[in-house]
Amino acid sequence: MGQESFIYSFVARGTMVLAEYTEFTGNFPAIATQCLQKLPSTNSKFTYNCDHHTFNFLVQDGYAYCVVAKESAGKQLSIAFLERVRADFKKRYGGGKADTAIAKSLNKEFGPVMKEHMQYIIEHADEIEKLIKVKAQVSEVKSIMLDNIDKAIERGENLTT
Questions:
Q1: How far apart are CA 92 and CA 55, in angstroms?
Q2: Is 62 helix (H, G, I), strand (E, B) or coil?
Q3: What are residue 44's phi and psi, to 5 degrees?
Q4: What is the pTM of this model?
Q5: Farthest CA pair distance, the chain
Q6: Closest by alpha carbon to 48, among 60, 62, 36?
Q7: Are 55 and 68 in contact (CB under 8 A)?
Q8: Would you say 15 and 36 are in contact if contact means Cβ atoms under 8 Å apart?
Q9: Is residue 68 within a helix (H) or strand (E), and if so which, with residue range?
Q10: What is the pLDDT of residues 63-113, one digit of tens each?
Q11: SS3 content of the chain, % helix, strand, coil (to 5)
Q12: Contact predicate 114/21, CB 8 Å
Protein backbone atom coordinates (compact mmCIF):
# COMPACT_ATOMS: atom_id res chain seq x y z
CA MET A 1 0.00 0.00 0.00
CA GLY A 2 1.46 3.33 -1.03
CA GLN A 3 1.88 6.56 0.88
CA GLU A 4 -0.80 8.15 -1.31
CA SER A 5 -3.47 5.68 -0.09
CA PHE A 6 -4.63 8.13 2.58
CA ILE A 7 -5.19 11.56 1.11
CA TYR A 8 -6.89 13.77 3.68
CA SER A 9 -8.03 13.57 7.27
CA PHE A 10 -9.81 15.77 9.77
CA VAL A 11 -11.32 15.84 13.23
CA ALA A 12 -14.44 17.92 13.77
CA ARG A 13 -16.63 18.87 16.71
CA GLY A 14 -20.13 18.85 15.30
CA THR A 15 -19.65 20.39 11.86
CA MET A 16 -16.59 22.51 12.77
CA VAL A 17 -13.26 21.09 11.59
CA LEU A 18 -10.74 21.45 14.44
CA ALA A 19 -7.72 19.83 12.79
CA GLU A 20 -6.98 18.58 9.30
CA TYR A 21 -4.05 17.11 7.42
CA THR A 22 -3.15 16.50 3.80
CA GLU A 23 -0.14 16.62 1.52
CA PHE A 24 -2.28 16.78 -1.62
CA THR A 25 -4.32 19.37 -3.47
CA GLY A 26 -7.81 18.78 -4.74
CA ASN A 27 -11.48 19.22 -3.93
CA PHE A 28 -11.63 16.41 -1.38
CA PRO A 29 -11.66 18.78 1.65
CA ALA A 30 -14.75 20.51 0.24
CA ILE A 31 -16.49 17.20 -0.52
CA ALA A 32 -15.61 15.81 2.93
CA THR A 33 -16.96 18.97 4.58
CA GLN A 34 -20.20 18.67 2.58
CA CYS A 35 -20.54 15.07 3.76
CA LEU A 36 -19.87 16.21 7.33
CA GLN A 37 -22.83 18.60 7.16
CA LYS A 38 -25.14 15.65 6.37
CA LEU A 39 -23.90 13.18 8.97
CA PRO A 40 -26.25 12.22 11.78
CA SER A 41 -24.98 13.11 15.25
CA THR A 42 -25.43 9.57 16.56
CA ASN A 43 -22.42 7.34 17.17
CA SER A 44 -21.82 5.48 13.92
CA LYS A 45 -19.53 4.74 10.97
CA PHE A 46 -20.15 5.83 7.39
CA THR A 47 -18.38 5.40 4.08
CA TYR A 48 -19.21 7.31 0.92
CA ASN A 49 -17.65 6.43 -2.44
CA CYS A 50 -16.82 9.10 -5.01
CA ASP A 51 -14.54 8.93 -8.05
CA HIS A 52 -12.43 5.93 -6.88
CA HIS A 53 -12.06 7.42 -3.40
CA THR A 54 -13.75 6.61 -0.12
CA PHE A 55 -14.84 9.21 2.41
CA ASN A 56 -14.83 7.36 5.72
CA PHE A 57 -16.39 8.79 8.86
CA LEU A 58 -16.44 7.73 12.48
CA VAL A 59 -18.88 9.74 14.59
CA GLN A 60 -18.65 9.44 18.35
CA ASP A 61 -19.60 11.63 21.31
CA GLY A 62 -20.18 14.75 19.21
CA TYR A 63 -16.94 14.45 17.25
CA ALA A 64 -16.49 13.31 13.66
CA TYR A 65 -13.27 11.73 12.41
CA CYS A 66 -12.76 11.55 8.66
CA VAL A 67 -10.25 10.07 6.26
CA VAL A 68 -10.35 10.26 2.48
CA ALA A 69 -8.60 7.29 0.92
CA LYS A 70 -8.15 5.62 -2.41
CA GLU A 71 -10.62 2.76 -2.84
CA SER A 72 -7.65 0.38 -2.98
CA ALA A 73 -6.82 1.18 0.67
CA GLY A 74 -9.95 -0.70 1.74
CA LYS A 75 -12.61 0.20 4.26
CA GLN A 76 -11.13 -1.85 7.11
CA LEU A 77 -7.79 -0.02 7.08
CA SER A 78 -9.56 3.32 6.85
CA ILE A 79 -11.69 2.47 9.89
CA ALA A 80 -8.57 1.22 11.73
CA PHE A 81 -6.96 4.61 11.01
CA LEU A 82 -10.03 6.46 12.30
CA GLU A 83 -10.09 4.37 15.48
CA ARG A 84 -6.41 5.23 16.14
CA VAL A 85 -7.03 8.93 15.51
CA ARG A 86 -10.12 8.92 17.74
CA ALA A 87 -8.29 7.23 20.62
CA ASP A 88 -5.31 9.57 20.34
CA PHE A 89 -7.50 12.68 20.05
CA LYS A 90 -9.59 11.70 23.08
CA LYS A 91 -6.44 10.97 25.10
CA ARG A 92 -4.92 14.35 24.25
CA TYR A 93 -7.97 16.60 24.28
CA GLY A 94 -10.89 14.71 25.85
CA GLY A 95 -13.00 16.89 28.13
CA GLY A 96 -10.77 19.90 27.68
CA LYS A 97 -9.21 21.88 24.88
CA ALA A 98 -11.26 20.26 22.09
CA ASP A 99 -14.57 21.30 23.70
CA THR A 100 -13.76 25.00 23.26
CA ALA A 101 -11.35 24.99 20.30
CA ILE A 102 -12.16 27.20 17.33
CA ALA A 103 -12.11 26.09 13.69
CA LYS A 104 -8.78 24.60 12.57
CA SER A 105 -7.04 25.77 15.75
CA LEU A 106 -5.60 22.30 16.39
CA ASN A 107 -3.99 21.96 12.93
CA LYS A 108 -0.47 22.73 14.09
CA GLU A 109 -0.66 20.34 17.06
CA PHE A 110 -2.75 17.47 15.73
CA GLY A 111 -2.13 17.63 11.95
CA PRO A 112 1.33 16.03 12.30
CA VAL A 113 -0.21 13.37 14.58
CA MET A 114 -2.69 12.40 11.85
CA LYS A 115 0.24 12.17 9.42
CA GLU A 116 2.01 9.78 11.82
CA HIS A 117 -1.11 7.61 12.09
CA MET A 118 -1.41 7.51 8.28
CA GLN A 119 2.19 6.37 8.00
CA TYR A 120 1.75 3.77 10.73
CA ILE A 121 -1.33 2.23 9.09
CA ILE A 122 0.38 2.17 5.68
CA GLU A 123 3.58 0.62 7.06
CA HIS A 124 1.71 -2.00 9.11
CA ALA A 125 -1.19 -2.72 6.73
CA ASP A 126 -0.58 -6.49 6.55
CA GLU A 127 -0.43 -6.90 10.32
CA ILE A 128 -3.52 -4.74 10.82
CA GLU A 129 -5.49 -6.71 8.24
CA LYS A 130 -4.51 -9.98 9.96
CA LEU A 131 -5.57 -8.56 13.32
CA ILE A 132 -8.91 -7.45 11.87
CA LYS A 133 -9.50 -10.98 10.52
CA VAL A 134 -8.62 -12.58 13.87
CA LYS A 135 -10.96 -10.18 15.70
CA ALA A 136 -13.75 -11.09 13.26
CA GLN A 137 -13.13 -14.80 13.84
CA VAL A 138 -13.14 -14.34 17.62
CA SER A 139 -16.36 -12.37 17.37
CA GLU A 140 -17.93 -15.12 15.26
CA VAL A 141 -16.87 -17.84 17.71
CA LYS A 142 -18.18 -15.76 20.63
CA SER A 143 -21.51 -15.32 18.86
CA ILE A 144 -21.78 -19.07 18.21
CA MET A 145 -20.90 -19.88 21.82
CA LEU A 146 -23.49 -17.44 23.18
CA ASP A 147 -26.08 -18.86 20.80
CA ASN A 148 -25.26 -22.40 21.98
CA ILE A 149 -25.51 -21.35 25.64
CA ASP A 150 -28.90 -19.74 24.97
CA LYS A 151 -30.11 -22.94 23.27
CA ALA A 152 -28.88 -25.05 26.20
CA ILE A 153 -30.68 -22.77 28.68
CA GLU A 154 -33.87 -22.99 26.60
CA ARG A 155 -33.65 -26.78 26.81
CA GLY A 156 -33.28 -26.48 30.57
CA GLU A 157 -29.85 -28.01 30.72
CA ASN A 158 -27.70 -27.28 33.72
CA LEU A 159 -24.41 -25.67 32.90
CA THR A 160 -21.57 -26.86 35.10
CA THR A 161 -17.87 -26.16 35.06
A1: 25
A2: coil
A3: -170, 175
A4: 0.81
A5: 64
A6: 36
A7: yes
A8: yes
A9: strand 63-70
A10: 999 999 999 998 899 999 999 999 999 999 987 889 999 999 999 999 999
A11: 55, 25, 20
A12: yes
